[in-house]
Amino acid sequence: MSNSNVFIGSLDQGTTSTRFIIYDHNAKVVGSHQVEFTQFYPQAGWVEHDPTEILESARTCMTKAIEKATADGHDVEKGLKAIGITNQRETTVIWSKSTGAPLHNAIVWMDVRTTSICRKLEKELEGGRTHFVETCGLPISTYFSALKVLWLFENVEKVKKAVETGDALFGTIDSWLIWNLTGGVDGGLHVTDVSNASRTMLMNLKTLDWDKKALGELGIPSGILPKIVSNSEIIGKVTKGWPIVGIPIAGCLGDQHAAMVGQACGKGEAKSTYGTGAFILLNTGDQMINSTNGLLSTVAFKLGPNAPTNYALEGSIAIAGAAVQWLRDGLGLIGSASETEKLASEVDSTGGVYFVPAFNGLFAPWWRDDARGVCIGITRFTNKAHIARAVLESMCFQVKDVLDSMHKDASEVESKGKFLLRVDGGATVNNLLMQIQADILGNPVVRPADIETTALGAAYAAGLAVGVWKEEEIFSSVERMKISTTFNPILEDEKRKKKLESWCKAVSRTFDLADLSL
User: Fold this and answer.
1) How many Å separate Cα 386 from the centre of its chain?
2) CA 456, 460, 461, 465 torsion: positive or negative?
3) 402 closest CA partner among 318, 510, 490
4) How far is Cα 457 from Cα 444, in angstroms, rounded to an integer?
5) Degrees (nearest 5) of the Cα angle 76, 80, 86?
6) How far is CA 235 from CA 176, 199, 232, 241, 399, in A?
7) Contact yes or no for 371/511 (Cβ under 8 A)
8) What is the DSSP string of 451-476?
């Protein structure tokens, strides 16, 4: 379909902000709006969001983006064909079916309050920490939704009662948004997609349905769970009370899966998204690989009810861009995130300083929830520029750790020839960060012209479902490579090797620090 009056919307609900972006038929942005929302930290290691505030941020973004596009002469009201949704994964909401009200704040993916539940399950279940890996692809970890659901069952009276009376609905943020967009208490659709479901620790990766054995072992009733759909199909229509009444919701993907589609990652290709955390996924095609090196098996995407399922290996890094936010908000070393590049460029090395941002433990490939952040190698010579550069390097070292594990697990499916890493996300505007990443990897890093590939991927999925784009158009990488920026490594191999050894030493210093006295 090639028509200048055809538009696709993308609702991108992230960890710190919500955006609505409107694309034309050439996938060019014609209108967008972004709103930050409140982060709640009730206790050390706990992170929550207000689900109602998230809904209002979505409403505001839709309204403002349409106003901006219309002001620029685009007839979006008439030409909008569908919207796609992409969201922060694992973040858990339980709400009342009868009132529509959340029964507790959303528990965010990086929250670690479920540590004791994890330890208990590891002792009780036959397979220990890896009990669900074979069916669901995920180890028992504070990261995943099932553990957050159990915490809500055990600690929130309103949730307990609603589950007992059949009034409770569970969902990740996509489910919460879709239920409200399609009517809420007046017939709202309770659905999720395969990518978000694959991050709950409750979906069987082979059947793409809720795993009855896992539900039974964890004591989670199937009645609270949403229906699982593909990433690209007409799910329902937006109802009254929203700015785009009657428009189909035709795409839904977790944020990292949407980025894979936005980056057109085919079998054997990898991407890294740098946001609050960093998330590296390698498309393994129709082959589900069980990692022996600390990675997760997950669904990459399924672009239609009858489309083949693409699987992926994933390495998740809890703290990436969040470390820069900490430099700004926690230490006051910078006034804005954009200042980090200038500050870190004032020195040509970290001066022997290594920073490991294990604020809430370490995810892949270490999986140590007893780890805490360290900054080592500090001398009287150290200044704030060295610290800023060490923070940037910490993101790149963590990505390198994950990719090393990926190469070991997936050598059979990786693309032949020189490995290159596709990158996206807000932090990739930092050219110094991208050069450091190429140097630490020893491989090229490719940044697309449009770094916000998460929103683009959700738009592609929706457009595919309503015939705006064909799959071969989306996955044709020839044109996009022409307008990409490539960062090639310039660091000598011997120096890279020594830096990696020092990084591993720094990581080892983070272990067993969770019980340090206040």
Assistant:
1) 29
2) positive
3) 318
4) 23
5) 115
6) 14, 20, 9, 18, 35
7) yes
8) --HHHHHHHHHHHHHTTSS-HHHHT-
Unique residue bearing structure tokens 């208490």? 185
Task: Provide the token pair at 462.
Answer: 């929706």
Beta-carbon contacts of 497 under 8 Å, excluding residues fewer than 6 positions away, are none
Q: Which residue has the tokens 């020893």?
A: 442
Burial status of residue 135 (CB atoms within 10 A of its CB: 0-12, 13-18, 19 or more): middle
- Let me know: does 246 contact 237? Beta carbons within 8 Å: yes
The Cα 487–Cα 164 span in angstroms is 56
Query: 85: how many CB neighbours lie within 10 A of its CB?
Result: 28
> CA 487, 444, 510: angle at the middle one, nearest 5?
95
Taking the alpha carbons of 308, 312, 318, 323 in that order, is the dihedral positive or negative?
negative
Whats the size of the chain, residue-wise? 518
For helices 431-441 and 384-409, angle between their N-to-C axes, nearest 10 degrees: 50
Q: Residue 287 has which token pair?
A: 């082959």
Asked whether 98 and 90 are in contact (CB, 8 A), the reply is no
CA dihedral in degrees (238, 244, 245, 246; nearest 10)?
-70
Q: In the beta sheet, which residues pair with residue 281?
A: 271, 314
Each residue's pLDDT expressed in tens, for the chain with a length of 518 residues: 445 689 999 999 998 899 999 999 988 999 999 999 998 999 988 999 999 999 999 999 999 999 999 999 999 989 999 999 999 999 999 999 999 999 999 999 989 999 999 999 999 999 999 999 999 999 999 999 999 999 999 999 999 999 999 999 999 999 999 999 999 999 999 999 999 999 999 999 999 999 999 999 999 999 999 999 999 999 999 999 999 999 999 999 999 999 999 988 888 888 999 988 899 999 999 989 888 888 988 999 999 999 999 999 999 898 898 999 999 999 999 998 889 999 999 999 999 999 999 998 888 888 888 899 999 999 999 999 999 999 999 999 999 999 999 988 887 776 666 788 999 988 899 999 999 999 999 999 999 888 888 999 999 999 999 999 999 888 875 555 556 899 999 999 999 999 999 999 999 999 999 888 76
User: Which residue is it, tokens 């569908």?
Assistant: 82
Rg (CA), the chain: 22
Cα separation, 55 vs 50, whole angstroms: 9
- Unique residue bearing structure tokens 């969001």: 49
Q: Nearest Cα to 48, choosing from 115, 138, 109?
A: 109
Closest Cα partner for 397 from 431, 446, 356?
A: 356
Tokens of 448: 């697309």
Please count the CA atoms within 13 angstroms of the CA of 422 that sit on its side-chain side: 27
Helices then strands, counting H and E runs in the chain, come out as 18, 23
445: which 2 tokens? 């890093």
